[in-house]
Amino acid sequence: MNYFAKMKGGGQSPPKVGSIEVLWSWIGSFLGIAAVSLIHSKMLDQTGLMMIIGSFGASAVLIYGAVRSPLAQPRNLLGGHVLSAIIGVTAFQWLGGDTWPAAAVAVSTSIAVMHLTKTLHPPGGATALIAVIGGESVHNLGYLYVLMPTALGAGVMLAIALIVNNIPKNRRYPEFWS
């Protein structure tokens, strides 16, 4: 198969998701993001710390909407975010004067490390990038960014996923822990 022919694709589109599945995905994502946002606005906002980052939106799609995906499993959610946050903060601190190399190093190294540790979680790449481009409020956190918002926020979302995704009889989460 030549190079450009591969770009046509060849498989079938994914099957349509039923209304009940959509509803449970909505409920889980609503509760997960609401919990993280509520903790941020009611407990942390006055201290200048943050609890919510943009990459959690993408995590919500996976852990509430694609619960059987290997990329949505707890090991991937937690490991992908935490490892990527460490890498992102480190890249910024080492290369912080230049955003473009720090951003490139943070994301590409995060992908490599997630592959090597079997924690691939696509939103982790965004978590690493946010550590670099997040501005002064993120940069001032330093490695605290790894704990809050990253680990704590992902942990809250995981707790909600464990509860909500196991309510319906035809839904199970997680598929695996390790």
Short key terms for the protein model shown above:
single chain, 178 residues, mainly alpha, 0% strand, globular
List the helices and strands and how they pair.
Elements: H1 19-44, H2 55-65, H3 74-95, H4 99-116, H5 123-133, H6 136-139, H7 144-164
Helix pairs in contact: 1-2, 1-7, 2-5, 2-7, 3-4, 3-5, 3-7, 4-5
Can you walk through the features of this model?
It is a single chain. The protein is globular, with a radius of gyration of 17 Å. The longest helix has 26 residues, at 19-44. The protein has seven helices and no strands. The model has no long low-confidence stretch (mean pLDDT 93). The protein has one domain. The protein has helices at 19-44, 55-65, 74-95, 99-116, 123-133, 136-139, 144-164.
How would you sum up this structure in a few lines?
The protein has helices at residues 19-44, 55-65, 74-95, 99-116, 123-133, 136-139, 144-164. With 178 residues, the chain is an all-alpha fold.
Distance between the termini: 37 Å
Could you report the average pLDDT, rounded to the nearest whole number? 93
User: Uncertain spans, ≥5 residues at pLDDT below 50?
Assistant: none
Q: Helix content range of the residues, please?
A: 55-70%
Count of discrete domains: 1
